[in-house]
Specification:
528 residues, CHAD domain, 2 domains, 8-stranded antiparallel β-barrel, 52% helix
């Protein structure tokens, strides 16, 4: 929802363990930049919404908070942003008590929109926050920053869609928020980058309200559903650099939100890791697709290498997810009536789950590292950079050539019969088709809807067919590492699983020729 103009915040949130925050707040890294004395205040807030959370679902938050002896009603709405730096609209109004009064909202358009969304439903209390806040003014060269240190708690009762405990649930608050008051935002990111070398913290993407609402709905502060790619649309007259920055901003938020979910639900909901990897792929697609639009000395190539390494590490966990979900579990169901095979497959499944757990542990260690925090900061810093002459060309001058080059690259790799290609060559082809698909989706809004949808469907079909063939190669590698000399039962279960994959590969190969032909026949949607 687009809200009318108002006060815009540009802020960055850092999440600390309480012990680390205690060290950080007393450090010279803070005191040396501080201007004036620190102020302290206790903030108690109550967040309201309809029982079905209609305001939250439309990107809005409504709270009443006690500030300096006065109750203040605040309406917030997301109006855009860049990477992990939020840009929000905020409307503050004094009220007589701890309940909201929408009649006091002066902007008629905002008030009307809220009433339309609520459809007569009464607003109800969703969650409460109780925070002790320390406020410091920082001066870094020509940059003025308000830093707030918040410690406390978030509490909510049950009553949501999937949480059914009946008892109140809570989460702790231990965070630092930096709000830019004046000067270039790059200075804020540089300062945080320096802090990251000495202190352990994570970049936060969930507001206190979001955390409280998730507690209300699910009983956990991160929510329970994977975060999929947002719908990024732009017009042809927009510059190549503006398009790149917009797409990276969307992708890095998807990356971080799924990264927050992985430690909570990772192995129980394998789609989270999948969407985390899609976010990385989206970032890599932009870095490669619009390389000629990036500013000079942008660090694009180094960033692309770091993202590739991140994807490689997460790929091991994804491979085990696919093997278990699409190989071992279906086989167990198929042989449920055979006690000997079932026992052997369960033993194999146990080993596979242990290997997957080790892979996830490696992924999570990476997410908690300073390197990952630095990566997020560097992507955001790049998004917020000003473009130069390289990126001034309208994307309408670039997109057709970019897509045509990728399609030509695919056709060049298969000069003859696709069925004579070995499995390694087909794997390389799959990666190129995947890039073609992501690139096509990136520019989908430029083409005729029907023609564009057909081309992307053909890309997805070919990518899926090639992916199924690649699964056989991956299964052979993963299961080969689990073999044990002398453990005949386990090794027979491995052979049974590989035979299952080989049969699936044979079925896919029979259909590959036809799928490839249909891909070749799909008319490029960027051509008339």
């Amino acid at each position: 929802m687009n809200l009318p103009s108002g006060t815009q915040e540009i802020e960055l949130k850092l999440l600390f363990d309480p012990a680390e925050l205690s060290i950080f707040r007393k450090s010279r890294d803070i005191l040396s930049f501080s201007e004036g004395r620190a102020r302290q205040v206790r903030l108690r807030a109550v967040y309201f919404d309809t029982p079905d959370l209609v305001l939250s679902r439309n990107g809005m938050a409504l709270r009443v908070r006690r500030e300096k002896g006065q109750w203040v009603q605040t309406l917030k709405g997301q109006i855009g942003g860049a990477g992990l730096v939020a840009r929000r609209l905020e409307i503050n109004l004094p009220v007589s008590g701890p309940v909201p009064d929408l009649s006091l909202v002066a902007d008629k358009a905002v008030r009307k929109k809220i009433l339309e969304l609520c459809k007569g439903q009464e607003l109800t209390e969703i969650c409460q926050t109780d925070v002790r806040r320390v406020i410091r003014d920082l001066v870094v060269d020509d940059c003025r920053i308000e830093m707030v240190i918040d410690t406390g708690s978030i509490r909510s009762g049950s009553g949501g869609e999937t949480f059914s405990g009946g008892e109140p649930v809570s989460a702790s608050v231990s965070e630092v928020e930096l709000e830019l008051k004046a000067g270039p935002v790059q200075k804020v990111l540089k300062l945080v980058r320096q802090w990251n070398e000495h202190y352990s913290f994570r970049i936060g993407v969930y507001s206190k309200a979001e955390r409280g609402f998730n507690l209300y709905r699910f009983g956990v502060e991160t929510g329970t559903a994977e975060v999929r790619a947002g719908d990024v649309r732009f017009k042809k007259r927009v510059s190549g650099w503006d398009v790149a920055a917009l797409a990276m901003s969307s992708a890095v938020e998807q990356l971080q939100r799924n990264a927050e979910l992985l430690p909570v639900l990772g192995e129980d909901r394998i789609e989270i890791l999948h969407q985390y990897r899609i976010a990385i792929r989206r970032l890599r697609t932009v870095l490669g697709l619009l390389d000629q639009s990036f500013p000079k000395k942008s660090g694009r190539k180094k960033l692309a290498k770091r993202l590739k390494a991140l994807q490689r590490v997460s790929g091991v966990g994804r491979d085990w997810d696919v093997l278990i979900a699409e190989g071992l579990l279906p086989l167990l169901e198929k042989h449920a009536g055979d006690a000997e095979k079932s026992a052997a497959l369960r033993a194999l499944l146990q080993k596979a789950e242990a290997a997957r757990h080790a892979a996830y542990r490696t992924i999570l260690e990476g997410l908690q590292s300073r390197d990952f925090t630095a990566l997020l900061l560097d992507v955001t810093a790049l998004v917020l950079r000003q473009g130069d002459k390289k990126g001034e060309h309208a994307v309408s001058e670039l997109w057709k050539t970019l897509l045509n080059d990728r399609r030509s690259d695919i056709l060049y790799q298969v000069p003859g019969d696709i069925l004579v290609m070995d499995i390694e060559a087909l794997h390389e082809l799959r990666l190129k088709v995947k890039t073609m698909r992501y690139s096509s989706e990136f520019f989908a809004s430029f083409g005729e809807e029907e023609k564009t949808a057909l081309f992307i469907r053909r890309c997805k079909k070919l990518q899926g067919r090639l992916g199924s063939l690649n699964d056989t190669l991956v299964a052979d590698q993963l299961l080969g590492a689990l073999r044990e000399p002398g453990n005949d039962s386990l090794n027979r279960a491995i052979d049974l699983t590989l035979k299952y994959y080989q049969k699936a590969e044979a079925r896919q190969m029979k259909k590959l020729g036809e799928t490839w032909q249909k891909f070749c026949e799909a008319k490029p949607f960027w051509k008339k």
